[in-house]
Design a protein that fits this description.
alpha+beta, four-stranded mixed sheet
Length: 112
Amino acid sequence: MKRRMRRFLVLFAVLLLVLSIGSAAAGPPMGEPPGLERAIEVQEKYNAQLLATPLVVGTGVGLTSEGQPSITIFTERVGARVPRVLEGVPVEVEVTGMFVARSDPTARFDRP
């Protein structure tokens, strides 16, 4: 469970980093896997719909074990009815259980 939570937090941090870099640069960052920007667009487009799906507790964008961009759907338990592909982007399901994000009132996220 801790490993899965850590994986989710890493994926979320990567997503935030990619979004902040992408908004500041004219093109994709150097070394970005082809298709990552498209995966982010698709994830953003379907995020509300996915989060409204029973058992789904979160979504993110990451890389498959082969290094290809994918959308990850985090579920409370096995049995969530989610697509395997969204607009050509592969979807992976990660069973994490329920989780709650705690906020730090002193945290700051400054964009360049």
